[in-house]
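Q: what does this look like with zinc ion bound?
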Amino acid sequence: MIYRKDKNWMKVALKYAYYAQEKGEVPIGAVLIFQERIIGVGWNSSISENDPTAHAEIMALRAAGKKIKNYRFINSTLYVTLQPCIMCCGAIINSRIKRLVFGAQCNKLDNKCSLKDIFLHSEQDYKLTIKKNIMKNECSDILLKFFQKKRSLML
Ligand SMILES: [Zn+2]
C-alpha cells in the first residue's frame, strides 16, 4: 500500500523531470507531499535561473514554504527522482521533512559519502526516514539518455 503511494508520487516527480528536460535543464524533478496533498513542486532550473542552488528539491521546498507560509515541513515527504546532493541534504535537514523518497542513486556521491553519514551529523533530535530505488529504472533512464544525447552533440 505504502509502496503504491510512493510510486504514484514518484510518477509526479518524474513528470517534472521531463518538464525540466523540455526546458533544457538536467531532468530532475521533486514534489513535497503533506497529508496526501502536493504542497510544493520543483524541477532543476539552474540554467534558466542562473542559479547554482536551483535544484529540484530546493525549488520544491521554496514553493512549499510560500504556499504554507512556514519554513518547516514536519510530517511531510519529499519525493525526488535522483538522490539529493549535499546542498539539498542540508536543505532537507533545515526543513525538517519526515521522509525522503528518491528514485535513482547518485554513484558520484555514494563514493564520497553516504546519505546516512550526512544525516547522522545533523541535528540530534531530527530523524529522517529514507527510502530509495522507487522507480529507479525510469528515474535513471531519463538522466542517462539526457547525458548520452549531450555527449553525442559534443562529438
Ligand atoms: Zn541538490
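The first helix runs from residue 2 to 22. The beta strands are 29-34, 37-43, 77-82, 99-104, 129-131.
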